[in-house]
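Review this today:
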Amino acid sequence: MQRRTFIKNTGILAGMSLSIPDTFGMPDVKVKNKLPKWKGFNLLDFFSPDPSSARKKTDEDQIKWMSDWGFDFIRLPMAYPAYIQFDRSRNITPQEVYQIDEKAVERIENLVSIAHKYKMHVSLNLHRAPGYCVNAGFNEPYILWRDQEALDAFCFHWNMWAKKYKNSSTDLISFDLLNEPSLREDMNDQLSKRSSVPGAVYRKVALAAFEAIRKENPKHLVIADGNDVGSSVIPEITDLDIGQSCRGYHPGIISHYKAPWANKDPENLPLPKWPGQVGNQYLGREMLEKYYKPWIDLVNKGVGVHCGECGCWNKTPHAVFLAWFEDVLDILSSNGIGFSLWEFAGDFGVLDSRRTDVAYEDFHGHKLDRKLLNLLLKY
């Protein structure tokens, strides 16, 4: 019997927080996380909405290295415009959102196939869905949280992916609905004001996509990213058979120090410390424990939790990054929550991160951050 089938068939045990009474002379026992404690990386091959500006292709050797090191998980954030056909000299139309480019889809399937060759679980994620993306840079024809036309297209895409992997093992594929949901006043302004997606609206969108997937895949895992750009649990969907994905970026002054897409004035930020006083706040483990408590509580209520993204941009001093990240990973891991670093190769990654304060190790033509790799392997 497959592990997930066993979990589903023992839903009474997996779906609630149990404790053993003191009369038995034993301490309280928390329920194990309903989601596996996956550990791995985001791969950004299909992250850009424009294939001509896509990241360098992940090759098989890199996936083999991940597997050899003991990682078992790949999150694949996809921008839907990367695998559809339309006239890219102008803004996309609602009709063109349905024009699937089978050759582009095949490239995605080929990467998934290589990952499966090495027994890596792949979580397909719509980083840009019809009507929403956490990033600007592509003009959407509607808004997912408001327009039924956008929701219909969202469900169409998920039904397509579910159909393609309906015969794949549940151990090897899952579906992460939408990257980092939020409401943004201006979809085309990266730094415009954000707010929470109203709970009822989030539920409507998640449930519609979930049902579109379930038409093809009655058993595969479905995951929803936390509200408020992945930071907040979603109580409105805890009764559904949907896991939830948190983030490992708190506080942003550490993880996104000097990042121009996350700060309005990136060059005039206080130098990060961990632990220590930074600006008007003290940064330390206590703030992380407070931040992750709702997620840990969610695990203990029987809802599966995974950290779909974590890490730190390359402008944060390396020693500060590692000190902070160890606390993040320790809190997650000690509560049975797995994680996925953003990214494998690149500014956030273990390879070729272009940090100026790292003694890199030469590794098959790449520059390896061995200290970061060892930290990931520790947990």
